[in-house]
Amino acid sequence: MPFDGIVTKCIVSEMNDLLSGGRIDKVFQPENDEIVLLVRSKGQNYRLVASANASNPRLHLTTLQKENPSTPPVFCMLMRKHVAGGRLLDISFHDYERVITLNIESVNELGDLTVKKLVVEIMGKYSNIILLNSENKIIDSVKHVDSDISSVREVMPARIYILPPAQNKELPENIEVDNIFNEENVEGAKHAEGIILNTVKGFSPYTCRDICSAAGVPSKTPLNELNESDKEKIKTALSNYIDKIKSNNFSPCIVYEDKSLLRPIDFYCFEPSKEVFYKSYDLLSTALDQYYLLRDTNERLGQKMGDVLKVVKNGIDRCKKKASMFNEKLREVSDRDKLQLYGELITANIYCIPEGAKSTKVLNYYSENEEYVDIPLNEYKSAQDNAQKYFKQYSKAKSTHLNVTKQQEETLSELEYLQSVLTMLENCSSRLEVDEIRQELIDQGYIRRSLKNGKKKQDKPSSPLEFVSSDGFQILVGKNNKQNDLLTLKTAASNDLWLHTKNIPGSHVIIRTERNSVPDSTLLEAATLAAYHSSAKMSYNVPVDYTTVRNVKKPSGAKPGMVIYENFKTINVTPEEETVIKIINNKNIPGK
């Protein structure tokens, strides 16, 4: 969710509890727009980060220790001069504005106690970190805003600090919920969420949508379509939301893309009301730190994955172009049998064809209807030579068809393999998984083996995903093609069930049967996981084949993950996220 007034209130409350009265031991500036304060408070050491980054402005505790520049920036030197060794009196914010003030008591050059203020403005691209003296004059800031940039509000050394323009809205504590739909509040609002956004201070559009969701009213419902029941539901949801804020009854969490809890979608002050992958935290600060740490890790993972992804996508494009070219060649020789027919009909009628004829019309004795066929001839060649010409053309076309068909099959097989690699790569959630796929592509000759670093120490292989069905059966899901081979050909017993999406790249899925009959509910859950871990995860009615492992074979020379199977059945499933979450959250003990 955005770093709105609600997040600001939650963070300020947490920081006051932990840091008020603490001593600022050190100051660092690892980035041009980021300050880190090392605070000793209540017997604990804390690392407080304040960022004015346009994309990710924030204030929270962090465990991340970034490398600092060898020469501290000017702002960092000023911070050390004015606040290092000082005492953090308190942390405050005003009227749900995204402006946080750290009040710091320190000793000046004369030995007198003075109070400095470190102001953190969290406002997107206008975010800033500003150091003030006791008279509210600006000592310096990480971003200077002169009159050329803003004629309304300068942020320059020696200027008096002026707060950003305030929102003309009511504080959550002062809102009279029963009057939320009064005429003066409705003015300018078009939808259900708009009425809350226009009225309550500190609420972001996300918060307003969340309140509508809790009320069971679509947030984009036009105001003139809201009935009295809808309005009452919104009032109740808003009242409950405000009560939580008033009492600081926050329940921070991070919502993730999947069970791995490695790809965060967003952070929230309150636990979600619908079924999603999420993890709760005692402190919003901890959630924020984890969220931004994982985002940074995933960005780095994306960079690491980039060259591998490029190799795979280039390979897929190459295969598609080759397949298209082969299709065109096959189309060109699709009438090869006609060439043989022409040769045979000319030979059968060789004495009836006059010299110099440009064409001949003869009976097609292969036709059940005894049709006549017009055959083009080269007038400068004899009938015999014309027949031989057609036989040679047929022989060449037949040879082309055989060769191109073989090449086409090889190309389509390679395309299927690379598409499966792409699916696995897109599902990677760790450096190890990317490295395993990179090694697979090296082994298959798609990436050149690097010798400059010598023999690399092998990491412990990653493990397949493990789930438990509602009936207590263990379900295993491969995360890459080598793992698929190991899972199907080595790990699984011959009477275990094997599942895979039909003609769609995806993971091998195994149900460990322990020689027990598999209930339909377990089969459905395993098929859902197979569809979810495939390139059809966003599709409906995905066909999934299943059979016993004994019916699955790997052809000699086949690429990793490529198998053939027989005696199978097919089940259609839709891999809805809520269904997958329920399977993931199942706590039954595996085994029967």
Give a short synopsis of this structure.
The protein is α+β, with helices and mostly antiparallel strands and 592 residues long.
The number of helical segments is: 13
Unreliable sequence segments: none
What is the CATH first-level class name of the largest domain? Mainly Beta
Tell me the Rg in angstroms: 35 Å
Q: Strand portion, in percent? A: 15-25%
* CATH homologous superfamily grouping of the largest domain: ibrinogen binding protein from staphylococcus aureus domain
Helix content: 25-40%
Question: CATH topology of the largest domain, anyone?
Answer: ibrinogen binding protein from staphylococcus aureus fold
Task: Kindly give the count of domains.
Answer: 4
Provide the spatial order of strands within the biggest beta sheet: 15-16-18-17-19-22
What's the pLDDT, averaged over the residues? Answer: 89
Give the overall shape.
Answer: elongated
Label the structural class.
Answer: alpha+beta
CATH architecture designation of the largest domain: Roll
Biggest pleated sheet: 6 strands, antiparallel
Strand segment tally: 22
Question: How far is the first residue's CA from the last residue's CA?
Answer: 43 Å
Summary keywords:
22 strands, ibrinogen binding protein from staphylococcus aureus fold, alpha+beta, 37% helix, 592 residues, 4 domains, Helicase, Ruva Protein, domain 3, 6-stranded antiparallel sheet
Describe, in plain words, how this protein is organized in 3D:
34% of the residues are buried. The protein is of the alpha+beta class and 592 residues long. The mean pLDDT is 89. Helix 5 (205-215) crosses helix 6 (228-246), helix 7 (284-332) packs antiparallel against helix 9 (383-426) and helix 7 (284-332) runs parallel beside helix 10 (431-443). The protein is elongated, with a radius of gyration of 35 Å. The chain has a 6-stranded antiparallel beta sheet with strand order 15-16-18-17-19-22. It has a 5-stranded antiparallel beta sheet with strand order 5-6-7-8-9. The chain has 4 domains: 5-141, Roll (ibrinogen binding protein from staphylococcus aureus fold), CATH 2.30.310; 172-250, Helicase, Ruva Protein, domain 3; 330-417, no CATH class; 465-584, no CATH class. The protein has 13 helices and 22 strands. The chain is 37% helix and 20% strand. It has helices at residues 5-19, 74-83, 183-186, 192-199, 205-215, 228-246, 284-332, 336-348, 383-426, 431-443, 481-491, 520-532, 577-584, and strands at 23-31, 34-41, 44-51, 58-61, 87-93, 99-107, 113-121, 128-132, 138-141, 253-256, 264-268, 277-280, 359-363, 372-376, 465-468, 474-477, 497-501, 509-512, 542-548, 552-553, 564-565, 569-573.
